[in-house]
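Supplementary Methods, section 5.1.

A reviewer requested that the exact input to the structure prediction be made available. We therefore reproduce it here, unchanged from the version used in the analyses.
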Amino acid sequence: MATSSIFLSRTAKMFVHFDTNEVFEIPILEGYSFSQAMNTSEVTLSEANTAGGVSRRGRKLFNNSLAPVEFSFSTYVRPFVSAGSGTGAADDAAMTHGVEEVLWALMAGADTYTTGAFLSGSDVITVPAAATNPISFAHSNKAQLKTGAKLIFQLEEEDSDAGTLQYTITEIAINEATVDFDIEGIATIQWSGMGTGITESANQTAIVADVIEGVSTTTAFIQNRLSTLTLDPTDSQTGLSDSAYTLTLTGGSITISNNLTFLTPEELAVVNKPIGHVTGTRSVTGTLNCYLDDSGANTSAGLFTALASATTLTQNEFALNIGIGGLTGTPSLKFTIPQAHLQVPTHSFDDVVSLEVTFDGVPSTFDAADEISLTYKAA
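The structure derived from this sequence is encoded cell-by-cell as follows.
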C-alpha cells in the first residue's frame, strides 16, 4: 500500500532563527497562516469594429513582482525561569524570560543576542532578573529593524515515517502584536508580520540541536480573570480628578504596530522581488471594557462624565498600568503606558450596561520612544 503523504496542521512546530546559532521554538495555536502573492498587470484592448464587424477583445496578464510574504499566528503568554545551566539554557542564571520573548525583541529593534539578553547595538532591550524581565521599546526608533532573522514552520506527515515539510520565511519583520483581555480565557498574543521570501524543503532533520530553552521548561499560563488596572491622570487637568480612576475590567486589548512597508523594485521584463522593509509611525492603541459603575466620582461613570464635559481640554494624559494576571501577582505580564490619550467612553446596552474606553499611547515628545514597556513575571 502506498504511504500517505498527508500533512496535518496540528503537527506544526514554529521556530524563530534569530541569528547563526540562536533558534527559539515557540508553540503556536490553531489558525496560523503564511502566504505570498504575485502582483500582476493586465493589458486589454478596446477598439471599434472593423469593416468586417470584428472587434478584438483579448487580454494578457504579466507577472510584475512577488508580494512580501505575510504571516500570522497566535501564542500564549508564557513566562518562565531559566534553568541557568546546560546546553541551550536561556540564561546562565535563574532569570525570568518569556517563551515568545524573541518576538518582542525583534519588534522592539533588537539586533544581537547574548546569553540571556537581547540588545540593540549596546542598548539593552530585555533586562532579565530573578523576578522580572522588562522589555523596552526605547530603542525602536529605526528606519529598518533587524534583517536576517527567519521564521520556520515545520510540518510532519500524518504517517509516522519521519517525513517533514519545512517552510522558511526569510528576512522577517514583526509588524503587529495584539494582546487580548478575554476575561474567561488565557492570555494570548496575535502576531503578524512580513518577510522577503519563502522556501519549501522536504524531509528536513528535526530542529533540536540549537534550540534555546523555553518550551519544555514552563507551564506558566496566565489567567485573564486576575487582570487589574490603574488609570491615573498624570497631572492636574481641567475637568479631571487628580485621583486615579478605578475600573474593574471585563475585557479589552492592546495593539502595538510598527506599520511596516516592504519595498519592491519595478523593473520591466522581470519578476521583481521584495528587497526589504521600512518602518512607519509606531502606534500603541487599545480598548478597555468595564461595567458602568457610579458608586463614586472615580469609577467608570465618573470617567465618562469627566471626559465628556472636558470641552476645553485638547489633550488628556493618563498613566495606564495594566497587569494581565495582576499587577503584583505571578505569573503575569504588565503593560506600562505613561502617556495615554483617552477617548470619551462609549456605552454598550447589553444585559448589563457597560463602557468601552479607547486609548492611544503617545510618546512624551516626537523624538521619544516611550509609549509603552512591558514586564514579564514568572511564577
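Residues 10-38+67-377 form one domain. These observations are discussed further in the main text.
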